[in-house]
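FORM 7B: Structural annotation worksheet

SECTION A. Query
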Amino acid sequence: MTEKSSHFSRRRFVERSALAFGLLGSTKVYGAEAESPVNAPGRNQVDARQYGAQGNSNTDDTKALQAALDAATTKGPVCYVPAGLYRLDGALTVPPGVTLCGASGGVPHSEHPVGTVLLVFGGRGQPEGEPLITLKPNAVVRNLTIHYPEQTLSAVTPYPWSIRADGELCQILDVILTNPYQAIDLGTKWNELHLVRNVFGCPLKIGVYIDQCTDIGRVENVHFNPNFWTRSALRPAFPGGDIKAYLEKNLVGFKIGKTDWEFISNSFVIFPRIGFHFDDFGHGPGNAVITQSGSDICPLAVRVDRTQDHAGVQFANAQFMSTVEIGPQNRGPVKFTNCGFWGTELTAEQIRHRGASSLVLTACHFTGWDHAGQRAPCIRASGRHLIVSGCEFMDEGKRAILLEQGLKAATILGCTFRGQNPIENQSGAEVKIGLNTNA
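SECTION B. Predicted structure
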């Protein structure tokens, strides 16, 4: 996101207002709220406090906030929620075209919880229950923190989704989700053109779920890291425990089903069970382009079970730690360009290709595979087609590529290896190998 779109300077706002109204009046600064005119109550906005919202952490503010949101359909379109701790025992629906806006000028951080915080008490033990926030078509939620005070790590409790999109052009902007069970739902309901930008948090089960999207969705600058819970200054504090071990057994960072032209950029997850998972979850598979993104320190950085036959999935300028797996049911092309792969202590192969599809690796580098020294190859391929070009295999003396039965064709061209006999061909397929170096 460019600076122009993310920052509206106070001076520029005042100057433009003066030109519009023919006078230069004085302005009053309200801390972080002055960063954007959308954050200060005024024309075309309703103030949730005027509808009974208390923000004192004890009073259930669900009905008051919903009343303010409903009022914003005619008096808004912005429903402004001033700084405070708002207890929610129920769920909220943001009507079509309405913006639920907190008091933070940019992205809030749970380590410094100033601004608007929603404390979630409703839905405990009900993962299929009503989401905390449902966005109707063209609705927006932005500039606030969502926190689950009763969540613990020793006995993780399921909750409904934190935010669900239901319709076209739903937007989730500048939001912190400290410890949600299920964070962002872009799949349970039909949707198009969703926009998720600047979302940070520590989801425990699913970070972002995408499905039933029939026109281009965008996910930008999403960052999932346990620090947003473990370092949170909100009370009660993080209860302690091995959160890395829990996430590695339970978390899927990005769960991607039916979507036509999903664009994901600058997005990251650490310690998941699966970083990016592509499959048919009941509505057909999808296709996606993922750039400047990564999945860090996990058993499976990417798992591709099913993608659209004609489009597949493409990763560019991405980083993975560590393994990518293409399952036998996948028929869509899978491509990695200018990507880096690192190993963990549990890494054997870094690429396992079993799909009835093509796998293309271009200008990638690999290091840290076969950590246990069991002669596991960096790339194990028994899928239909494999193309490896201009890649660097950085580990000394290790087997880099193993071609197995089931492979139909492979091309390995212009790669750099560090050791003799880095390629082993057991496939019986049509294989072309050339212009590689060993040094």
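SECTION C. Observations
Confidence is low (pLDDT under 50) at residues 1-37. The CA atoms of residues 255 and 330 lie 16 Å apart.

SECTION D. Sign-off
Analyst initials: ____
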